[in-house]
Each structure stands twice: as structure tokens, then as C-alpha cells.
UniProtKB/TrEMBL annotation, chains A, B, C, D:
Listed Pfam families: GFO_IDH_MocA, GFO_IDH_MocA_C3
Domain of life per record: Bacteria
Residues covered by the GFO/IDH/MocA-like oxidoreductase domain: 138-284
Residue span(s) of domain Gfo/Idh/MocA-like oxidoreductase N-terminal: 4-130
Keywords, alphabetical: Oxidoreductase
PANTHER family according to UniProt: BCDNA.GH03377 (PTHR43818)
Keyword tRNA processing: no
Keyword Transferase on entry: no
Name of the protein this chain belongs to: Gfo/Idh/MocA family protein
Length: 397, 397, 397, 397
């Protein structure tokens, strides 16, 4: 079995990124299982039909239930808005389909847990779309940590800053509405940071956070497309009920200290997904706006030439880069999805869960939830509280 | 007519980049003419068959003459080694095919001129692969110059530095052999700088250069693949007869001063294709290793906040970026080819010559030739010398 | 009166920096009151005598009481270890001397408050050594904020990272002992960040922090000089009772969110005193390791050239730079002290309190204290708690 | 003899920088010979008197002949305009004074040679003010080259870019007049690059250049102070007879290729004195606007973490830095002069010629002259031509 037949729900920003990944994978990673772009699903028949043609899907559906019911589909890719993830995922799992779901896994922790349980019960493969892991420079950071080249980890500081809503007239798109998006910068941007923290440093033990909505009312959008939308000065306004910014401190199980910040109100930052790790033997720094680079400092360099090195992670020594272009020829955002899909295909072939999977999605959702609770209750929240509650809930049932 | 059927000669580094461009174009620029990947051609039947399958070509050929003779092909894409460009291009033009040829146009100036003449005579469209023009940050530089926002241009300095042959044991691959490649860093890297100079500043009036081969013997390669190759310490050695580095000074017709440097012996530079322009009102700086960025300085900024701005050319205000991802989500090397192919498709639809075309290739070749002559004769060479010679040659015939 | 006669306590790192400031001031700011380097004081007669000669002091003392008692001294400069600040400052104030005290004002909040009260009661001028305010690039940040060019402030994030104790064999110098230094990175580095926050953003309303000592035992030092010291592997060890790192979140009175981090365990960071401010109209970024630069982003730049500008704050338009060298000729760490002393001299002439003064020192100490309390009690601490307690204490007396 | 009594001619930009160096040396390098600031000389009695007081000179003179005649002076420091260097230096040498002369040594090569001969004949110490050698980061570059850590040198590229005359209304100050300054950017900025090339790479064998004056007329200045001046739109204009920009290519005796560019018409560059060296084993990059940093790349770094390191040259392992502040606390432009004066004092004590000395000044002048000749005659000029001419001239006499 060297083909996997994909059915995808959603066709906008993430739908485009995923579609492209399926298209490009066989060309650059010809030895991987080939994803077959079987069907794409969306509610607007014209729009989804147009997307199918443009992106290269064989067919389209307007009801995700119909998609899930199809016998010629092996894997359901879910990149619809977050509030419908769970229902689709559960149905697909029950139909025996493998799952690839965009982050955050769901808008609430219980739903996320349910998704994991259902996927496990169904015995299918399940992946979650924390694509930033798959930048080669991030892979290099992981390698340096794993090989002990940074020593004992002391600090993880991370910030994901954007500025696309800095204009108070930017409209109230779905990403700014709690019922659909779950949260604002916290779940959208902070979720990525939390996953990177888990990936690079390990378990978080406790957190305390703070958040704010600086612009509390925005024009209602006339139409919504991807991240953007159009509003007018005179348009009626609606209340923004998600956070513009959320910060939190964390203590990791291994003793490291963490600092996290997610904001959509940081002018000049289009997509600054950035982290730094300091360990007893060295440090690394990453900024997604220069995603091909990792800054690396090692304490054992000769004493007269110590300094952060700008490593351009495009050499054959770097993950995935053999498949692309010669050294120095950089790759872009969309490549993270291709590498992610490669991992998904490899995991299916090797009959193991892909990394990251729904368990990682739940772990991330737990931290998101703990931070929100810490904000609401103005106190440190231990991650163990949430798992104990889960246990109790389980017992109660 | 909304389809163009492509036949491509060559299937290695550039062949892969071009193939990918044809694949991706319809997805991201759905309103463009669609290139149909009809046939790919190479001498090694197995290898080209494998490439056809991997890259997505409908069929393959092992003789470029057969390819050119096919009736179901509208355009011939030539990315075979430089020394065979001319023969293929001339035959294709005579067969009425549009042409897309990698740079340099040919290994000698007379051949390049012949290619242009034949293409013009045939009335076909002809494009040359100076892909770096098509980085959005370079497009922004062009826009700033064209709109006069940098004022009168004083300086153009450019350097294309690489380090892939820094190891003296790196083998004598075809790019280091004059009979196949024409020249070394000069024609490979310097050609790109010259084209950017033409594009951004204008005509060059006179030049004087200097070149060097630092490592004069290298192991003969056992096999050659793309840029790399494998040699051993004990392998027999061959003479390197191309330049490792070529530098030259230039005076532009508009009075600007130019400085050019191409080298493959600059450790730490994987692909530093970099230029800076200084004008009476401002400056711009570009480095391909950070290809999404343009540094911009304007003299009329407020006096307390003057400084180079790092513009991340990923906003909707930047060329092509509407077709890709939200601001801050960068693109990579391969995108320059997609934009280039878009220009090719648009030019065909609009019945005009694409930019850059064979005339630009000839202009570039003239400068390459003038620099070589200036090196051989140790004197300034005016570009007018070459055009006068051409005129005379024409008369003589 | 155009002379101020200085008596200084302390002659090591800060003593050297202050001495140099007094020496250089008249040359570069000839219109300022001239500080006369009257006497320097330290316990070790030979060492202080040597320092007097080297730094250019007219005389020396070995007992600070004798210094304070001298009639030919107008101002006492205190840069001895933090635990003796209070006693000296109080005595000097009572003797009618102006005060210039290094930060932190003292090791406890009550002592700091007492110092302020005594200085106010005595009617003398009092300054505290938050020298980083006086980097021209920081002055530019202040100007941009004050003039409203960044709009409403949303975010202040700051980190002061060093790595001088990253080696576990680095000895237990006085800066690592609570009884002398009061705290570790918190009071040493964090204090600077807090002062910058007060200066650039305004009052802090509440805080919550976290701290850690990663290396809990270190060799006892054989000798101590400035920041360094010598230890051996076999040396007896002592307990480190100050923090290696302290982080905290803050909410400002104006609604901005703050994130602070101080660490001495961040490899590759020699002296990264860095902050970023995001406002509704723009952002600025500063890093002391590139102290002549401020990164500035403005949302109203033309849409195709938006980006952080690297402003080299060495133009005549920048604070103090007229006194130094032509644009582009940078200054260094020690210049912050010269500018600071200029402010001190100007304040004395103009009969006003210098900026920052002991009131700023107390404000900073309050935040340091609030953070420590928040760590001990694992809860948010409002700054108003501390002022209410002060009020009550006052009533109790 | 542990004192050297200085007499200085000139009191503006360089006069200030030198004065400060003499003032600061004993404080930071207490073991060096102490320079005694005996007398300063300038034609304007009031102005020089004011400078003497401000800078800390014991006395002043208005006639350099009187200064040279004084018995209480050991060393003459010459930083008057370039066209008077020779006369003063020769007289001072004949009077047995040591010499410290700003660059360029003189405005013509014969004069420069005469200065060297006279200094040698008199047996005095002679230094020339190529201060950029004395940035610790440049010293580090020198160390890496000298120790062979960069291997065989292939490339030296250097550019010294400024923008202080970019405004066409900037007046015709003395630095823009050939009779006083000798040349424009070439002798002012290019001279520094040539000295760095000599210092870091070695002898230059041949050169070819190009230069331009972009703004050929400028308002006559009402007054001139340091680099600046004031002009008005309606002011009468004078002809600019020096170069705004000069570029040249060079071949070094050791086979390295050189590229040099000096311009005062490069917007955004306040003082970009920058060079890069590529060798067979590594590269270094320097930019004076970030003078505390050296970028270092080594080919033998581990293959997954190769990259340019930003070395902040403020560690004890770096030249001079032990005398200053802890690591990470940067120094500025003026420090290069302090280190330069330290070398001067050390050379006097050790009875050797300081580095760089008048011989280096002549070498530099020879290259300046060769470049000018290459421009005038539009041909490569070998450095040996100039030395042969010198020989002939010597024979003719």
C-alpha cells in the first residue's frame, strides 16, 4: 500500500497550505507514500468547486458527513474552523479514517480529550498541525537539545507576535470570535509556542498568565476571506471577546523557567514566532521571519571567538534539505507543511503515531486551559490539577 | 488558447526548479495560462524516465531533436549545460517553438547573438532564466528605483559569493570545465549580477576586470550530480580552466559607478547574491540568503529616525505576495521560478516579449565578454567596441 | 558656584566608571558645572591610594565617616556594596551633602524609603545610578513615546541577560551573597529593567514573579575584584543564596502588559539589556550590546516600505551626540555615566532634583520587593499593597 | 623617563580625539608612559586658548614653529589639515621631536617620502594615525589571519561609505578642496582601507581605479567647523575638485584579490568602514558602525552548525579589553585613539618604531598615488613603477 487517499475539510488558508503539501510531496520526497488528493469539502459549492480545481483535488463535497462516509478515502484532513474539529474528527475516527487536524485540536479541553480517546479507540493514526516543528532550523534546535549540546536547559523564552489587527478598524473576523475560535492570540499563536516548548524542553509543571483585549469593539465584517476581511468606518460594531495578547510564565518539570507571549498587537511583527533556549553549555535562537536560520552559541568555542553563529539551515547536514536545493537556497513557510505531511506518510507506513499527534494536541490544550484558568483565578495553576480532574471525571462516568 | 505545452531539455538542478514552477503555477496563479508538462528530454533514458515520473511530465525523450520535432509542443525549455544551448535554441526557434533558456544564454557572445537573431527571425517568444529578478524584494528595489524614490543613482555594488568549492578536494565537475560551462564564477554568478545591474540601473558603458583560479587542479569526479560530485584523495587530477573568482569595475551610461564580484571561494557564503544601490535620495540593500527582505533607507525620513528599514517583502503591497501566504510568511528560492514562469505565460498571452529575454541575455553576454577581454588585455573595454564589431561582422558577411 | 566638589565611596567597577565620568565631563560638556574630584574613599589604604592616583582624585580616605565630615566636599558619590548604601547616604544627607548613589538604592525597601526621606528632609539633591537611561538610543525611545509617536502603549517586554556565572566553578563573589547584594540577578539586572519600564511606560500596578538558583553551591573565592574572582576545583564551597534568574509579569497603570526577565545564566549574552515597546502606532527595540542603535517601526510608513529601521543614534538630532563625534562614530558604555553626571550637574545648577533620583530608586525597590513577595507567596501583588503598608507603618510610628 | 611631553598642532575633530586619548591613557593603562599635555597650537588665539582649557593642555601657541622650538616638548602631534603636515613634520624631526601625524601623511607622495626620510634621518619615533587598526575587533581579525586560522587569503573587500555630503547644498568645506585635502573620499576614507589591507593582508602589487564627483558645485561655506559648515541656497558656489567616490581593484603580492570603495555619497551610511576577508579556512567581516563586533566563520566547525559568529570583542581574550569594562560593555570610536596612543607610548619605551609608522604612511600614499595614476591613465599601475621611479629620482639628485 503506497497510496493514501485524502479527504480534506476546509479550503482557505490552511486548506491551501495542506493541498500544496500533498501536491509537492511526491516530487521532492519520491520515496514517501503518495497522498492522493481525492476530495475536498466545504459548504459553499461554488467556492469549494473552484478550490478543488485550483488545488488539484479529484472531487468535492459540501457535507463533511458525506466525505467521511466515502469508501475511497483513507485519511480525513481537518482544517475547518476550530469549533467543528471535534465532531468531524470523532466521526472520521469512528469511520476508521486516519486523522490530520489543524491546531488547536479543539476549542475546549474536554473536546480535545475526547478526540484523542476516540482516535485511540479507533486505532487510527492521528496527527496535529503544529507545522513549525518542521522548519529545518527548528529541527536543528531539537537535535542540539537532544544530543545534549546545550547542556541542562535553564531558560525557554518564546514570543509569537503579529500585527494584522493593529488597526482598530480591522473587522471582527471569525478569528476574533470566541465561539468559533475558542480564544484569540492565545489559542492561535500561543498554542504553537506551547507545542515548541513541549517539543524542545519537555513537560510544563505550572503556569500563571495575564491577558488583555486592547481593542474591545471592531466593525462587523461584510465578508471574510482567510485572515482578512473588509470593514468600513460606519459599519456596525461588535464586541471582541477573545484576547489580543496573552502572556504567561511557566516552570518545566526539568526545572527550566519559561516565558511565553502571544500578541496580535505588536507593530512591525508580521509573523515573529521566536524562541530562545539557554542551557548550561549553550544557547539557540530562532525567529520564523528568518525561518532558515538558527542562532547557535556554544560555551566551549575558543575563548577569543565566542559568539552566536548564524547557521543557515540549508546544508545537507540539516533535516530535509537534501530534498531541496543546494546550500544557501532557502525555503519558505509552505515547506513546513510538506515536511509535516512527510512525517504523516512515514508514520502510516511505519505503523506508528506521527509526531506531533493528538496526545500532543491535548497536552497543548491542557496548558492553554491552565493558563486561562490561572488568569481567571489570578493564581498559579499546576498541570497536575488538570490531569487529576480528568481522572476524577473519568471515575465519575 | 489557455494552455502552453512545454518540452524541456535537462532534468537536474534547473530542470527540477523549472518543473516545480510549472506544477505550482496553476495553483497559485490560476488566471495565468496553464503550462502543460508534455515532455522532458535527457540522454540517459532511465534517469530521464525517473525524472519524468517524479516531476510530473507526461512523456520523455532522449534526443532533443525528437523533442523539438514534436507537434504537440509549443515551447522548449532549455536547461542543459550551457555549451548546447545554442544548437537546441536555434533548432527550436526554426521549428516555431517559443523559448525559455537558462542563463548564460550561451558560452560565447557570437552564439548568443545568433540565438537572439534566430529567435527574432522566427517570431517566437524568448525568455532567459535570470530568476533573481523575480524575488519580491528585488521587484521592490526595481519599483523604488523606477519611481525615483532613490533619486539619481550613484552606486551599484554587487557580489555573488559562494563556497561550495572551497575544499581543494572538491572534484572537477562540469561547472569547472571551460568547454562545457564557458567560464566559472564569472558566467555562473557574475551573469546574475550583470542582469540585475541592467534591470535596476541600466546600460553599462565600460568595464575592467580581474580574475583568478586559486585551486588550479582538482580530482576528476567519478560521477556528477547537480552541483556536487564525489572525488577521492588519490583520484587523478585535472586542470581547472575556469575562474574561481572574477571582479570588475563598471561605469554605467547614466554616470553611476559599479562594482562587481563573483567568487566560489568565500567561506561562509552559501549563496550570497547581494547588491546595494545608493542614490541621491536613498539606498537599498539585498542579500539572497535573506531573500524576503529589502533594506531601504530614505534621506527624507525624519531626522531623528533615519536608518535602514528591514522591509519584509511579504505584504500584499509587494509583487506576487497576494498569491501566497499572509504577511510575514516567507517564500523561498523556488518561488523566483514560479514568478518567472508567470511572466513567461503572461507575455505569451499578451503577445509581447517576456522580461528578461534573449536580448537581455545578449546584453549580459556582451558584458561577460567585455570583462574577459579587459582581463586578457589588461585595459578598460567600452561596450561600444563590441557593438561596433558586431556591426562590422554583419557588414563583412 | 560653578564647581561641585565630589567625595566618592568605592573604587572598583562603578568607582572607575564614575571617576571617568567626572574626568571627561568638562572636556565634552564644557558649559556644565565642573565636578572636582576631591577625595575617594575605601577601606584598603594601599588600594584606594592607588585608585586615587590612577583615576585622578586629589586625596583619599579610608573611613567614609571622615569623608562625609570633610568641609571641602559638596556631594557624596556612593558606589560601595549595596548593603552599606543606607548608612552612608543618611549620614551624608545629614551633613548637607548632595547624593549620587548607585543602584539598587539599598538592599531592603524600608532602608530605601529611609534614604529618600532623609535626603528630602535634608533638602539635598539626590540621584540614583540608573545609567542606561542615558544611552542616546534610550533617550530616543523616550522621546518617541513622549511625543506620542508610538501611540498608546500595549506591550513592554524586557530582558537583561548575562552569562558571567555560567561556569559552575565561578566563585561565590559578593554579588552572589544575599547579605551584601540583597538579591542576585533580580536586584542587579532586573532593577535596571524596572527603572526603564518606569521611565518609558509609567507606573506598574501589579506583578507576579518566579525565580531560580540553578547552581546552588560555588567555590569560595580566594580574592574578589570587581565582577571576577578566582576559585579552584578543590576549594571549599558555599551556598548561593541569591537568584540566578528572576522573571515576572506586570500590568502597568496605563493598561500596558509587561514581561521582565533577568538572568545571569544565558550563554552568549554578555550584557543583553534589551527591551521592546509596542504601541498602537509603532514599536521600538533596544539591545545594549548594540547600544548606539534603536530599532524603530511606524505604522504610518508607506505600505510598501514598512519595516523596523535601524537608527544609529549618533546624529546631531540625538541626545548628547553634538558633544561627541560626527555621525556614525559610536560611543560606549562609559558614556552613559558621563551623560548621567551631566544631568546631575545640571540639576544642581537648576536647583531641581536630577532624574532619576531616590524617589525613582524607591519606586524600583518597591517593585523588586513586590516581585519577591509574589514569588514567596505565589500570588499577584499589587503595588498599592506596599504603599498602604508604608502609610500604616508611618501611622504606627 | 616615564613622561612624554606632547605638543599638538590642530584642535578640531582630530585634535579633540587625540587630546582625549592623552587624558584617558593614564587612567586605563596606568603602566604606560604618561603623556603630558604640554602645549596645543592653532592660528586663532582665542579658539586655541579655549581648546587648551577645554581639553586640558597646559599652554598654547599660535605658531607651530614656536611650538617645535620649545625645549619642553618631546613629541609633536600633527593633526592640522593635510597640506601642512610635511612642513611641520620635517621641522619637528629636525628639532629631534618624536612625531605622531594624522593620515594621510601628506597630500603628495614625494612629500610623504620626504617626511619618512627626515624622520629616519633624525632617528625619532614616528607614528601615523590609522586608528581603525586599534579597534579590538580589528585586532582580532589580525590575530586570526596571523595565526593562520583563516588559511591562505583569497579575498579582501573593503568599503568605507559615508553620506555627510549627500545634500547638494552641503557647503564646500576644506575637505572638498584639493589644494588643502589632497583628494576627497580617496585620501580621507580610502586611505584607511588601504592601511587595513596592508595590515591584514600584505603588500599590494597592482591597482586600477575609477572615480567620480557627482556634485560638481557646492555653496561656499560661511564658516567651517570640523566636518560641518553652513551654507545657504543663494550662496555663491565653488567647484568641487576632489572625488566624491573612488573605487579600485587590486592584486596583492600573496595572490589575494582586493576590492576597494570609498564614497561620501552613500545614503544611510554614516561611517561604514567595512571589510571582509575570505581565506581557505575561514572568513571575517567587520563594520565600524558595529565596531565591537567581528563576524567569524571557520570551515572546520561541525557541519551542522557552520555559520558566521558574531563575536563581541569585549572579552578579556580580546586586545585591550582587560583595561576597560566587563564583557559585553562596549567601547566607542574614541577608544581607538587611546589604544593608538598606548602603542605610541609603548614603542617609545621599547625603543622601536610604533605601528603603523611613516613607512606605512608612505606605503599607503603610494597606493593612493598609484590609484590616481591608474585613473588618469586608464590602465593598471604596478606598485613597482612607483618604487623604481623613486630610485631613479634618488639617482638623479
Amino acid at each position: 500500500m503506497e497510496l493514501i487517499r485524502i479527504g480534506m475539510v476546509g479550503y482557505k488558508f490552511m486548506g491551501k497550505a495542506h493541498s500544496h503539501a500533498y501536491r509537492d510531496l511526491p516530487m521532492f520526497f519520491p520515496h514517501a507514500i503518495k497522498p492522493v488528493m481525492k476530495a475536498i469539502c466545504g459548504r459553499d459549492r461554488d467556492a469549494v468547486g473552484q478550490a478543488a480545481q485550483q488545488f488539484g483535488w479529484e472531487s468535492c463535497e459540501t457535507d463533511w458527513r458525506a466525505l467521511v462516509a466515502r469508501g475511497d478515502i483513507d485519511l480525513i484532513d481537518i482544517n475547518a474552523p476550530s469549533n467543528v474539529h471535534k465532531e468531524i474528527a470523532v466521526a472520521a475516527a469512528r469511520a476508521g479514517k486516519h486523522l490530520f487536524c489543524e491546531k488547536p485540536l479543539s476549542v475546549t479541553l474536554p473536546e480535545a480529550r475526547e478526540m484523542l480517546k476516540e482516535a485511540e479507540r479507533a486505532g487510527v493514526k492521528h496527527m496535529i498541525g503544529f507545522n513549525y516543528r518542521y522548519a529545518p532550523a527548528v529541527q536543528l534546535a531539537k537535535k542540539l537539545v537532544s544530543e545534549g549540546r546545550l547542556g541542562r536547559i535553564y531558560h525557554f523564552r518564546a514570543w509569537f507576535l503579529q500585527d494584522w489587527i493593529i488597526d482598530p478598524q480591522f473587522p471582527l473576523v471569525w478569528r476574533l470570535r470566541k465561539e468559533i475560535a475558542g480564544s484569540g492570540s492565545h489559542g492561535d499563536l500561543g498554542a504553537h509556542l506551547i507545542d515548541l516548548a513541549h517539543y524542545l524542553v519537555g513537560e510544563i509543571q505550572e503556569v500563571i498568565g495575564m491577558s488583555e483585549t486592547f481593542v474591545t469593539e471592531r466593525p462587523l465584517p461584510d465578508s471574510m476571506t482567510g485572515l482578512s476581511g473588509k470593514g468600513s468606518q460606519d459599519a456596525p460594531k461588535g464586541k471582541v471577546d477573545v484576547d489580543d495578547a496573552t502572556l504567561f510564565l511557566a516552570r518545566f518539570a526539568n526545572g527550566a523557567l519559561g516565558s511565553f507571549e502571544a500578541s496580535r498587537m505588536a507593530p512591525g511583527h508580521r509573523c515573529t514566532n521566536s524562541f530562545e533556549i539557554n542551557g548550561s553549555l549553550g544557547s539557540v535562537k530562532f525567529d520564523f521571519e528568518r525561518m532558515n536560520e538558527l542562532q547557535v552559541y556554544l560555551t566551549d568555542d575558543d575563548e577569543d571567538i565566542q559568539g552566536f553563529r548564524r547557521v543557515l539551515a540549508t546544508d545537507p547536514a540539516h533535516a530535509y534539505m537534501d530534498a531541496w536545493w543546494p546550500p544557501g537556497h532557502t525555503i519558505g513557510y509552505e515547506h513546513t507543511f510538506i515536511h509535516e505531511v512527510l512525517e504523516l506518510m512515514n508514520a502510516i507506513r511505519e505503523d506508528r503515531q506521527p509526531q506531533p499527534n493528538f496526545a500532543d494536541g491535548v497536552r497543548c490544550q491542557e496548558v492553554l486551559e491552565a493558563v486561562e484558568r490561572s488568569i481567571a483565578e489570578r493564581r498559579w495553576v499546576r498541570m497536575s490539577e488538570l490531569s487529576e480532574e480528568e481522572l476524577e471525571e473519568g471515575i465519575d462516568r
